Amino acid sequence: MTCDSIQEDFHSYHAGVLSPERANALGEHLRTCLTCQRAWADFRELDRKLEALPAPSPSESLRRNFYAMLETHLAAQREPGVFAPVRRGLARLRAEWLPSNPFAQAAGASVLLACGLITMLWMQTRRERDADLAALRQQMDAVTRLVAYTALDRQPASDRVHAVLATDTASSLGIAKLLRALALDQNVNVRLSALDTLYPHAIDPAVRAGVLAALTRETSPIVQVAMIDFLATAKATEAQHQFESLARNPATNSTVRAAATSGLVQLL
């Protein structure tokens, strides 16, 4: 198993849907591969941050199509199945018994009792069905998020760059996709494109936190400098400690140290 194939299975491994053999092989690989251990730690950290973001909503067209299908399904179940036997019983009662007949009164009482029982059972079934539909909507939202999060990973780097640049940042899902690409994508150009696309949202605390978290694990000097400029421009004072750490560490790339020093000046 290669590191790329291991990291492609992180989503399924985290969700517990990998086959036992594949999950065991992935776990064994993680115990011996430092690169994949770091990537797994990045994945878990970003997943935690993404979970804290507001849940994305399906598009209006998807929502309309879903509820149209749902309404068609419910309409087929409403009439005449539940109340048709009751209506037939009442009709026979009116035709065969006079209102003053004691037997008719007893039968009427029995029918009313039956109606009450049927109504109660119908309402209970309706509540259970509504609960099932609510669970289905939640599952659909979860699948939508999972597909969106994994879509970029399945494409070549050039396609991922185009996808990042075309991401709709008006939704929390779009921003989450960009933060994930910034933190986990193996291609430098994809990470830089994601960062550029996030600039209009630099004032968003969640975006600044995502960029700062990615900076702490970034190894490319080019991307490190770009992230420092992003946080300094956004006046992200929470990045001061990280800037100081980079500026004082003699092992840090000299260009990155200079950018961190300049960023500290901008934050003060």
**Sheet bearing the most strands, described?**
none
How many domains, as an integer?
Answer: 3
Rg: 30 Å
> Which CATH class of the largest domain applies here?
Mainly Alpha
**H/E topology pattern:** HHHHHHHHHHHHHH
Distance between the termini: 48 Å
Enumerate the spans where pLDDT stays under 50 for 5 or more consecutive residues.
142-152
Determine the strand fraction and express it as a percent band: under 5%
According to CATH, what is the topology of the largest domain?
Serine Threonine Protein Phosphatase 5, Tetratricopeptide repeat
CATH architecture of the largest domain: Alpha Horseshoe
Indicate the structural class: mainly alpha
The proportion of residues forming helix, as a percent range, comes to over 70%
